[in-house]
Specification:
By secondary structure, the protein is an alpha/beta fold. The chain folds into 2 domains: 36 residues, no CATH class; 81 residues, no CATH class. The protein is built from 6 helices and 3 strands, in the order αααβαβαβα. A 3-stranded parallel sheet has the order 1-2-3, covered by helices on one side. Strand 1, helix 4 and strand 2 form a beta-alpha-beta unit. The longest helix has 15 residues. InterPro entries: Arc_rbn_hlx_hlx, RHH_8, Ribbon_hlx_hlx. This is CopG family transcriptional regulator.
Length: 144
């Protein structure tokens, strides 16, 4: 069965730490000027620091809604990793996965497109999905 979300440690490294996802946003000149002013005055280290702080504050404001939706939609919150052994175990048990993740879902490099198709019924990821390109292509019709 797939491992539950966990934090990698030196004793239990797990998959490599995910790289932050890059977002692009468009801001008006006035908003950007105000951000630059706050950075210049030392409130924030840089533009990214202010934007991350603003996003985290908004997420904290809505944390109860996020928690309720995670529970209602039975989403795994955090990082969920699937190896070929995990998916083979699912098949051996005569089951198929309905993957639902809020955060990061990773499918290991040792997973073949055939194994993914045989063991994964559907996949919903709110966040990021890291998987071999061939596996992503094979699962494209099952991504929601």
């Amino acid at each position: 069965m797939p491992r539950k979300s966990r934090i990698a440690t030196a004793a239990n490294p797990g998959p490599a730490r995910p790289v932050d996802e890059k977002l692009s946003i468009n801001l008006g000149c006035v908003d950007l000027g105000q951000i630059d002013l706050l950075v210049q005055e030392g409130f924030y280290a840089n533009r990214t620091d202010l934007i991350r702080t603003a996003i985290r504050n908004q997420l904290a404001t809505h944390q109860d809604v996020v928690r309720q939706v995670v529970e209602r939609k039975t989403l795994v919150l955090g990082i969920q990793h699937y190896s070929a052994a995990d998916l083979a175990a699912v098949l051996d048990a005569g089951e198929r996965l309905q993957i639902r993740v809020l955060g990061l879902a990773t499918i290991a490099a040792d997973v073949t497109p055939e194994l993914a198709l045989a063991s994964i019924e559907s996949i919903t990821v709110l966040g990021a999905l890291h998987a071999p390109a061939a596996v992503k292509a094979a699962l494209a019709a099952r991504l929601r």
